[in-house]
Write a structure and sequence with these properties.
This protein is α/β, with parallel strands linked by helices. It contains eight helices and ten strands. It starts with a strand and ends in a 5-residue tail after the last helix. The structure holds fructose -6-phosphate.
């Protein structure tokens, strides 16, 4: 695992954006696996900025997102489709039909999930998968469990995830209780993984993912088995690794 130690959120965002831009420049028709949430927001701002300066183009890029809340329409301002449109897609030259986010309103989740996986497989898996990480170690919405789920699936969100995401909703009760998430199979199938983290509240999840036992109790720990992971994190998120004397 290659680790980039950055001083703060902005530096982490800039570094993450440059890793993504590097992929797009070297492989203009790549399949990018994308994430939502506070972590990648800053990186998306840099990418939009560099697109506006004419430094990168997304015209041949394909994308698949990690997850979506069950029950939220794409127009709901807390849906992950809405997040992607407003933070990235609406501001760059990506072709709308080239972007995929799980359909939170699907009537047939089982068929939808197997079609999502079939699409990813048909492309030879994702070229670069961007990941944030939950405080509980989740990647995508693969929550701590007693086993890893390989396929895209409907997941019951952990209480801690509902707590963490309540900040985006009027009340905690408004947070959807389920999501559709890419499984560990598609994430581990990615040719490259870019894991990003910022802030002290991610320090345990990062420590456990990098140094802890490989266990579905900390889904991020599976990344220890991936051959090509780049971790971009600020010093606060790396603090437990640094304190443990891990060279970063
Ligand atoms: C988002 C996703 C989640 C988030 C994680 C961290 O698409 O899959 O795993 O990356 O919950 O969220 P933030 O970045 O808001 O702390």
């Amino acid at each position: 695992m290659r680790i980039f130690r950055e001083k703060d959120y902005d530096a982490m965002s800039r570094r993450a954006a440059s890793v993504i831009a590097g992929e797009v420049v070297h492989n203009p028709s790549c399949l990018l696996g994308l994430a939502t949430g506070s972590t990648p927001e800053g990186a998306y701002k840099y990418l939009v900025d560099w697109y506006k300066q004419g430094l990168i183009s997304f015209k041949d890029v394909l994308s698949v997102n990690l997850d979506e809340y069950v029950g939220l329409a794409p127009t709901h301002d807390q849906s992950y489709r809405y997040f992607m449109q407003s933070n990235l897609f609406d501001h760059v030259d990506i072709v709308p039909e080239h972007t995929r986010v799980p359909d939170g309103l699907t009537k047939d989740a089982k068929a939808f999930c197997s079609e999502y996986d079939a699409y990813i497989r048909s492309k030879g898996y994702v070229d670069m998968q961007l990941l944030g990480i939950g405080r509980n170690g989740h990647i995508g919405f693969n929550e701590p469990d007693d086993h890893f789920v390989k396929e895209t699936h409907v997941v019951d969100l952990a209480e801690s995830t509902i707590d963490a995401n309540a900040r985006f909703f009027a009340t905690r009760d408004d947070v959807p209780k389920q999501a559709i998430s890419m499984g560990i199979g598609a994430i581990m199938g990615a040719k490259k993984v870019l894991l990003c983290a910022s802030g002290e509240d991610k320090a345990d999840a990062i420590y456990n993912s990098v140094c802890g036992p490989i266990t579905p109790k900390c889904p991020g720990s599976i990344l220890q088995l991936h051959k090509n992971v780049v971790l971009v994190a600020d010093e606060a998120a790396l603090s437990k690794l640094i304190a443990a004397g891990v060279e970063v």
